[in-house]
């Protein structure tokens, strides 16, 4: 997603708008690919140290319920 310069610029504008116009004060990112998360579901023994952000806290991905894992995977990739 961020390999293209125009997408990087869109992300920069989005972050600036969040902080400047909406007075945001905090943002958190999961920087892990959808493929890694899917592999962690299929092969949890290979990803014992994978930590993700959930709604306001961090957790080991494989300790989460399948429903929560699926939700995190579904919101992993966003288009700009």
UniProtKB/TrEMBL annotation:
Pfam families (alphabetical): Gly_radical
Give one GO molecular function term.
choline trimethylamine lyase activity
Q: Which SUPFAM superfamilies match?
A: PFL-like glycyl radical enzymes
The alphabetical list of record keywords is:
Lyase, Organic radical
Per the UniProt entry, the Enzyme Commission number(s) are 4.3.99.4
- Show where the Glycine radical domain sits: 1-80
Name of the protein this chain belongs to: Choline trimethylamine-lyase
One Gene Ontology CC term in the entry: cytosol
User: What gene name is given for the protein in this entry?
Assistant: cutC_41
UniProt cross-references to InterPro entries, sorted A to Z? Form_AcTrfase_GR_CS, Gly_radical, GRE
What Gene3D superfamilies would the database entry show? Answer: 3.20.70.20
Q: Which organism is it from?
A: bioreactor metagenome
């Amino acid at each position: 997603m961020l390999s293209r310069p125009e997408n990087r610029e869109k992300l920069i504008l989005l972050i600036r708008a969040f902080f400047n116009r909406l007075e945001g004060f905090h943002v958190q990112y999961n920087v892990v690919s959808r493929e890694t998360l899917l592999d962690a579901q299929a092969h949890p023994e290979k990803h014992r140290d994978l930590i993700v952000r959930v709604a306001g806290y961090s957790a080991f991905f494989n300790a989460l319920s399948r429903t929560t894992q699926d939700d995190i995977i579904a919101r992993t990739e966003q288009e700009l």
